[in-house]
């Protein structure tokens, strides 16, 4: 179902569009932006290629920094059973470990539950949905034409790109990072393990990668890891890799021995790129991973996705509520605010990942953290933001 609107900003041509805003991708960033915008009176269509609910490859640790903002949108995570996490355990390839209280803490909730909760809230407030893949977006001077796999062309005044790390759309838009092959892949499964502590998130190193362990709302423990292709290729498949490489870290070895997998097959994703991206491209306002991906060890990608959706939504609300801001000014403001909020965190994440993947350096880091517990707090603070509401 579409709505017709007649748009009359003085310095833009008069254009009849189907929606004020089309959001491409209904993950965390896209759904958050859609809810925020509709609550402020805007007409929004989300185009998502997959049916809800579904599982996603993710560490499933959400930083508390976005919890107050989600509450403001009436998206409570505790009410869905999210578990409170206050402690981090970090271990080296050989299983030497250190624990530290997390300065801000977070919650454990599966993406299956989290994304579905947002989807239901979005439907409740009146966001329109189309299940299909966006194949291309054309900017026509003052409005967008969005082409979908259902052979539909839908028009909007603004378009938010919230389609995640990598998509056919990146090729269609000829984004520069898509030209380069990435050397990272990720694997995830849920497990049953009775006595896994609820309040703890584990970050465990192994040769060529690292993995996170934490509990989710339904009692399952999520184990999700990032691995380099080089290290994975030698093992040939996930089972061998888990046995020959991942399990060399005694924490992970014991976990994989004792825990029972929930999914028949683990979920995997490939070609994970950490290369810089543009926050606005072809006039599309990029949110979440579409604008830039922080290294997963930081446990902050979801919070960044939600925060970037808030920044974009606030500017769009401002634009439609009579401000004199032009499209160009809105885009410039978004880029500036995005950089201010996230550029430093991404830089820190890159440095920490370099250290973590070098066994000698990560040993030194672990010893330093053991002697100076405040160091871990400092590192967490460098890769996280302050609570937003
Ligand atoms: C291994 C790993 C572990 C991680 N662990 C954590 C963690 O513990 N904590 C944390 O905070 N972050 C973590 N992250 C990061 C986090 O998963 C992402 O930052 C977050 O999912 C970004 O949300 P998003 O909305 O930008 O993208 P997504 O959640 O990926 O949503 C994008 C949506 O767009 C849809 N889509 C794609 N292309 C199209 C198209 N052409 N048309 C229509 N729809 C489309 C997809 O189906 C998807 O639903 C991890 C990342 C990795 C790789």
Automatic annotation (TrEMBL):
Pfam family, one: FAD_binding_3
Presence of keyword Transmembrane helix: yes
GO MF, one annotated term: FAD binding
Keywords: Membrane, Transmembrane, Transmembrane helix
Keyword flag Membrane: yes
InterPro entries named among the record's database cross-references: FAD-bd, FAD/NAD-bd_sf, Geranylgeranyl_reductase
Full protein name: NAD(P)/FAD-dependent oxidoreductase
Domain of life: Bacteria
Record-annotated FAD-binding domain positions: 19-322
Signal peptide range in chain numbering: none
Spans traversing the lipid bilayer: 21-39
């Amino acid at each position: 179902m579409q709505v017709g609107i007649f748009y009359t900003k003085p310095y833009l041509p008069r254009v009849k569009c189907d929606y004020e805003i089309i959001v491409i991708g209904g993950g965390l960033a896209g759904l958050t932006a859609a809810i925020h915008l509709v609550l402020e009176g805007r007409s929004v269509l989300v185009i998502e290629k997959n049916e809800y609910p579904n599982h996603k490859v993710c560490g499933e640790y959400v930083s508390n920094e976005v919890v107050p903002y989600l509450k403001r949108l009436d998206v409570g995570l505790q009410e869905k059973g999210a578990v409170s996490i206050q402690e981090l355990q970090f271990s080296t390839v050989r299983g030497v470990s250190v624990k530290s209280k997390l300065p801000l803490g977070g919650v454990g909730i599966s993406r299956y539950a989290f994304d579905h909760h947002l989807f239901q809230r979005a439907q409740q407030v009146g966001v329109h949905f189309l299940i299909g893949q966006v194949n291309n977006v054309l900017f026509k001077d003052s409005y967008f034409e969005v082409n979908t796999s259902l052979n539909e062309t839908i028009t909007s005044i603004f378009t938010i790109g919230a389609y995640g790390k990598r998509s056919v759309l990146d090729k269609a838009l000829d984004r520069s990072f898509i030209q380069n092959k990435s050397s990272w892949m990720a694997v995830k499964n849920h497990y049953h393990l009775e006595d896994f502590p609820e309040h703890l998130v584990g970050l465990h190193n192994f040769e060529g990668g690292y993995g996170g362990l934490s509990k989710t709302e339904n009692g399952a423990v999520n184990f999700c890891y990032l691995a380099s292709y080089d290290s994975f290729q030698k093992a040939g498949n996930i089972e061998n890799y888990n046995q020959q490489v991942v399990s060399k870290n005694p924490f992970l070895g014991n976990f994989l021995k004792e825990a029972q997998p929930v999914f028949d097959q683990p979920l995997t994703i490939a070609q994970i790129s950490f290369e810089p991206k543009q926050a606005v491209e072809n006039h599309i306002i990029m949110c979440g991973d579409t604008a830039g991906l922080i290294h997963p060890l930081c446990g902050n990608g979801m919070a960044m996705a939600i925060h970037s959706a808030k920044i974009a939504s606030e500017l769009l609300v401002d634009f439609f509520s009579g401000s004199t801001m032009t499209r160009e000014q809105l885009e410039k403001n978004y880029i500036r605010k995005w950089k201010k909020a996230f550029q430093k965190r991404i830089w820190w994440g890159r440095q920490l990942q370099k250290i973590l993947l070098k066994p000698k350096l990560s040993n030194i880091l672990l010893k330093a953290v053991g002697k100076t517990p405040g160091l871990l707090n400092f590192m967490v603070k460098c890769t996280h933001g302050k609570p937003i509401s």
